[in-house]
Design brief:
Length: 595
């Protein structure tokens, strides 16, 4: 998969430049042939390359390879209950509803990205049905078609969660259209459901090629889609149909959780199963000195199975990871040679900036401070602290290996050199509010999901901005949490508690869930613990219905803007105004509450 992902851009460039490089010949209007969609595809391998373009597109969206407002909102969860902006990024705020409008470029760019994916999937489907394309077998063709239909359904699932009902486009267009009609949110979900169910038998349970789609990816999405459908039906007052949808959600969850090849990883595994993370503390002049290790200073960190999940080389099912269902492929050599998007810029985007507000005590951009972060978004106090209050040591997901809270002074003149910095010092408590805000929003615990103690490529000049591990798109714990939510909505709170406790048992939690504890807020809190930096939180909040998104954003945002400007029910992003304006032949209604 790492290799084949590189080929799609090359193939499309060949199509664009097929006439050659002779300047004089290029200027003469004497073409030997004209390229149409029909003629672009001549082999089944080329159709498969169109499918691979879909993989690449999804990877770039989910791995935040474009540091745009759209990707910081969708990919980095900016503006949700979990993430806000630091003082140095206030211009990037995405939860001030006094200035957010349907004209915001983030809404348009995100909407466009999903339709670009749909266009690529439709192109692959068109090519697959051309009569002159020869296939090695009917099974080979069926698998290519199934992947393309998956991507199309996946796009509509996401569009339904974020924007509600949208136009359903199933064919490529050769002329401009201005007459698209919106489906309802239910119809959008149903289209995705129908597509996913139609391809189940054409997707293999496992594949030797890492990153390629398997049946479990469709089952997971069906579990989510039926849950989404049930919520929407229930909000419309159709409780009987909603119950049926929730039952289907649980059924697909059961197939994946209890009746497939997947299971939670409970024992240490993989490339570093016998290792523990460790860090040098040193200032810029002294560099990394062997005696200046956290472990040598009396602050050892113990690795665990959850930490193993996020170490390079451990993400794929083919590598022994039994909870990996769908994984985006990242490869350092590929990034160096021909695929510049084969990277996770997580340290850069998510990483803290101790070197600015805390330079008297700890500075630099090395492993000890989480690498070379520039803090495009910051975890809210909810994400970093509140969800663990009262149970700090009772959850592997809050261990030092996974969510590191101990930082040693690395400036020799500091009284804390080689000693743990108290958080009241890090947060500059007692100083003016603007000073505290800068420190709090730029300095925070570092997750093993966004940084590492062993960066790849340093000998080649890499600067601790990027990770080069594969990235989960679907991991079994999320399926478990979806099934728990469906059970809760069916009033099976005991079953929901049992599901959540599967994750807490793996995390060796000292606190288990009782049926009476189960609520939407508890499930959202568990998603935050288990899936921080993995889930698309905007999708989760907006699909929840009611005032869930409004309440949680107002409650947990770091800055006060949403508490002043956000009101009422908020379950949808707006249809981009540009889309409404250019669809001149059919009136496209705006989502409620957006002017």
């Amino acid at each position: 998969m790492k290799k084949i992902l590189l080929k799609n851009s090359i193939w499309f460039l060949l199509v664009l430049f097929i006439t050659g490089c002779d300047d004089a010949a290029f200027l003469r209007e004497n073409p030997e042939t004209f390229y149409t969609v029909d003629k672009v595809f001549s082999t089944s391998e080329q159709v498969d390359q169109a499918v691979i373009a879909c993989y690449s597109h999804v990877r770039n969206m989910f791995c935040v390879n474009e540091e745009t407002a759209a990707m910081l909102a969708f990919g980095a969860n900016n503006g949700t209950d979990m993430f806000d902006v630091p003082t140095i990024r206030r211009e990037d705020t995405f939860n001030d509803y006094g200035i957010l409008s349907p004209d915001a470029v983030a809404f348009y760019d995100n909407f466009s990205h999903w339709y670009q994916l749909i266009s690529k999937a439709n192109l692959a489907l068109y090519g697959a049905d051309l009569s002159h394309i020869m296939w090695a077998s009917e099974e080979t063709k069926a698998y290519v078609v199934a992947q393309a239909r998956f991507f199309r359904a996946f796009a509509y699932r996401n569009l339904g969660e974020l924007y509600g009902g949208v136009p359903i486009v199933t064919e490529i267009s050769t002329t401009a259209r201005y007459d698209f009609e919106r489906a309802t949110r239910i119809e959008t979900y149903q289209f995705a459901i129908d597509e996913m169910e139609a391809i189940l038998n054409d997707l293999p349970e496992t594949t030797p090629v890492a990153g390629r789609l398997v049946r479990g990816a469709a089952q997971h999405n069906l579990c989510l889609l039926y849950l989404n459908k049930g919520i929407t039906l229930e909000e419309a007052g159709n409780s009987a149909e909603a119950k049926t949808a929730y039952e289907k959600s649980v059924t697909y969850g059961n197939q994946l959780i209890d009746g497939s090849v997947y299971s939670l990883m409970t024992e240490r595994f993989g490339t570093r199963k016998d290792e523990h993370p460790d860090y040098y503390y040193a200032d810029a002049e002294s560099g990394q000195i062997p005696g200046r290790l956290y472990s040598a200073a009396g602050y050892p960190v113990e690795g665990n199975v959850y930490w193993d999940l996020f170490q390079e080389g451990n993400q794929d099912y083919q590598e022994g990871n039994r909870e990996a269902i769908w994984v985006a492929q990242i490869d350092y050599i590929a990034n160096k040679t021909e695929d510049g998007s084969s990277r996770l810029p997580y340290t850069r985007i998510y990483g803290p900036v101790f070197r600015d507000p805390l330079s008297a005590h700890t500075t630099g951009a090395m492993e000890d401070v989480g690498g070379r972060g520039i803090c495009r978004v910051t975890p809210t106090m909810y994400t970093r602290d509140i969800i663990y209050e009262g149970k700090w040591a009772d959850d592997m997901r809050n261990s030092e290996a996974v969510l590191r809270r101990t930082f040693l002074g690395n400036v020799e003149s500091s009284e804390y050199f080689g000693k743990a910095l108290p958080w009241e010092v890090i947060y500059k408590e007692g100083q003016p509010q603007d000073v505290m805000d800068a420190a709090i929003t730029q300095c925070y615990p570092v997750s093993c999901k966004i940084a590492t103690d062993k960066y790849t490529g340093l000998s080649d000049g890499q600067n601790r901005s990027n990770l080069y591990r594969d990235e989960y798109l679907i991991r079994l714990p999320e399926t478990i949490l979806l099934r728990a939510e469906a059970k809760m909505r069916m009033d099976n709170k005991a079953g929901a508690a049992a599901d959540i406790n599967l994750l807490r048992a793996r995390a060796q939690c000292g606190y288990m869930v009782q049926a009476s504890d189960v609520s939407i807020d508890l499930i959202l809190d568990e998603r935050a613990r288990e899936l921080v930096y993995e889930e698309r939180r905007w999708n989760t909040l907006l699909r929840m219905g009611g005032t869930v998104a409004t309440d949680r954003i107002k409650k947990y945002a770091y800055w006060d803007e949403p508490r002043v400007s956000l009101s009422g029910t908020f379950n949808l992003w707006p249809i981009p105004q540009t889309i409404i304006d250019t669809n001149k032949d059919v009136i496209m209604e705006q989502n409620p509450g957006w002017r």
